[in-house]
Amino acid sequence: MTGASGVGKTTLVHALDAQRLPGLHCHYFDSVGVPSVTDVTAQFGSPQAWQQSTTERWVTSLVANETGDRVALLEGQMRPSEVRAAFARQGVSRGRILLVDCDHDARDARLRNERRQPELATPRMAAWAAYLRGQADALELPIFDTTHLTLAQAEQGFIECIRAWTV
Predict the structure, then answer these.
(1) pTM to 2 decimal places
(2) Contact partners, residue 2, CB within 8 Å, separation at least 6
(3) Which domains, and CATH codes, for the chain?
């Protein structure tokens, strides 16, 4: 699952993880560490190239399935087109991509108030969110919109969505 900062990705995955559904393992893209822009640029040439490389490594690792899970969910800010390309290179035929999204005002308020990260409530983050929405639309991906949902409603709806996918 992908989405911009502040849409609720991590919160939703933590709620799903708490359900301890048999055969499901949740992974967090940023758990590998996010290097500084300077380091990323020096090693990979650009942040986009780092993200592409890291997405590929994640998909490779999940395909190896060393944890023996039936379903692996990866949460992060990944370009859907890069995830699809990594799926194709790894021969993943049952992979799915879900965009978690919300409108600009809701995302901004969450970043500024609930998360206390006003430095992320920028025009750049708004552009990233719009880009991800455009990719989801172009690739005909499902979108889970959290804009008008309470936390409980969002968690329940997301858990139901993932359960439906794992049946």
Answers:
(1) 0.90
(2) 9, 76, 77, 78, 79, 80, 83, 97, 98, 99, 100, 132
(3) 9-166 (3.40.50.300)
